[in-house]
UniProtKB/TrEMBL annotation:
Belongs to the universal stress protein A family. This is Universal stress protein. It comes from Sediminibacterium roseum. Gene3D superfamilies: 3.40.50.12370. It comes from the Bacteria. Residues 172-269 form the UspA domain.
Amino acid sequence: MKKIILAFDGTHFSEGAFNFARKLNEIQPVFLVGLFVPQTELANLWSYAAAQERFFVPLVEELDADTIKENIDLFESRCKAFNIRYEVHKNFSDLAVPALEAQSRFADLIILGSEIFFEQMGSGQPNEFFEDALHHVKCPVLVVPEKYEFPECNLLAYDGTDNALHAIKTFAYLFPELGSNTAVLAYAHEGDSEIPEKEQLQELLEAHFKNVSMVRYEGKPGNDLNEWIGQSKAPIVVCGSYGRSGFSRLFKKSFVRSIIAEHRMPVFLAHL
């Protein structure tokens, strides 16, 4: 059984994030933790400087409190309706950052709604607050749009780095139920004509995925790569990092950011 955190910013309830967790529970039971944080704390949610200085954040306003209560009730009723084991965590303290970081350390996965989590903090997603959340959490993250098809194809973004390989292995360990999906490893790296250590990589992939192929992406970065990924039926993209070192030019932060910003498919992120 996996422990999965669904993180909500209090006044927003992500149907897309919940529905992904619900589908996982149908395949194999999960333990779902609904984590609700009021909007008045969002500006300092991932600010470590603020946390270290014990920066005071006012308690949630009454209007927000009512909305949060409604969303918690909705979460609980949905979990009961779909027979999901669940728990609710609320954090209205002035030290939200350490508490949230600690919870991510003891979770197998966090699911975030890519379109509405932190949306009020800046135009367009992912904004800087959403990106900070991706950067600082201590467990893998699944970023889910509000409308999507449940994955039928695992697209494994690989550039030969340890980060990318770690993400693929972590995805396989967390989601053995998706191992029967078609899996495509897309290799892209400047200057390398062949996939490095291809035989060992093939053995690893075949141990976890029933229908797997490896291709070298020959196109250009950016939109060309996004369009190529979008041709797959109901894909989930697996990436090794977000805003960290070790990415090739094709699979660097801008690529991941653009995939998330399009809100077309789930994206799984894990880093060493």
